[in-house]
Amino acid sequence: MQLTFDCEVGFESVNPNIKPSISLLPLSEYDHIIISESGGKDSMACLFYLLDQGVPASKLELWHQCVDGGGADHVDLMDWPATESYIEAVGQHFNIQTHYQWRSGGIYNELMRKDSLTGDVYYTTEHGEIIHLPTKNGKNNTRLKWPAMSPDLRIRWCSPYVKIDVFRRVLNNHPKYKDKKILVVTGERREESSNRAKYAEAEIHACSNKTRLVHAWRPVIDWNEQRVWDEYEKRRFLPHPAYLLGWNRTSCFGCIFSTADLWAMMREIAPERFNRLVELEQQLDHTIDTNRVSLVDKANLGSLERLPNDARLSQWVEIALNRNFETRDLIMPRWEVPAGAFRGNTGGPL
Ligand code: SF4
Hints:
alpha/beta
């Protein structure tokens, strides 16, 4: 039986059967409820749902893994520049703690890894500190190749190295979570893919041990996309700017699974970022596309039809490509379905 994996933190799904769900504790009995927050619509739907259930904001935490690293060793490569400030604004709006974790240098450092251990892990605390978890174990290894466009995380290394393992190391090592009852909430939905259709709604999380109980919960697993956008509409809540620009997912800006349209759109709105990836393909003599189609050739096959064709394009580009998203911009004067809604489930790590 082949193990297949997702880009979410903590789960490994075993095909072909749906795993039976475990029973969760009453929400009030968990010491911490951690929402794995990408800034995308499904993790936001989890947040809206938990607040609607009456979970106090003081019990919630938004955790985000910065795929391009953080602090002094951030390297602009894959992510939307706006994502962290968008999540920070969401936290401020609802008065919820936000926490960030990353591997040193993010995807870039792992991509350029040469006969060395993987990078150290860092996390932020509610006191504004950055805590360092040095990597001491493992094998020296060389990458110099892009992650494979595959569901198998042994070769699609980006998801485990910059997200899943980083999340688990922080949860396993942060003293605050020792001997506690923790609920980890993620936003996968069955509608998104045949793989996700088989996920259990709740299960024991990989970080659970004899003294720390960690449950994993996918509260929106049976929601359809309409219901997710209804939650935004109810609050006139501004989606991550990626959706406003026509992206159907908020994963990495330069996700390896991006379609031709998404690469063409990236080249149009962020040519420097696109060209950086093109240069790296040439330097490594290895294409992101597993079928050896270069990014330039792939983008040439794409269409710009999804990008807004009015004055809002430059407004959304300005917001998406900067790191200064403002809390006051989260509530829209009037709700509008974003250009990226209902575009199907392609172009991301499903
Ligand atoms: S490139 Fe895509 S698959 Fe890899 S970590 Fe980013 S979103 Fe996940």
